[in-house]
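Quick one: structure for this chain?
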Amino acid sequence: MASKINHVIKPALACLLSAVTCGHVQAQGHDMALRGLLRAAYQNMATTHECRDIIGPSGYVLARAKAANAFRLTGMPTDVAFRAVEKMVRKIEKNATKKTASSSLSECIAMTRQSEGNLRLWQSKIDGSTWR
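Got it. Here's what it folds into:
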């Protein structure tokens, strides 16, 4: 899964980092935070996409909006954020594996909550920083 995520993250990260100018040491910390944020957004979208037949499609739609908002939090222009999310959507849909009706509702809810919590954690790292 990591290689699938990296394929989407690297171009988006390059776009994000081009908008950020800061010292080398700060850039390394921000690079890690940006990568974490992008991975968390991708994972949240992938999880809600995988479970959409069980928990409903609105969770996936909401995850897409949260991803775009997370990218915009970094200072990424809105149009670039939406293009990055759409690229992630194409990748997720291409590599999709749906949870079936035999999958547990509680399993999907737990996975979704975990991925949302991880996204919030990385957002707080970006939001709490002084580099913006």
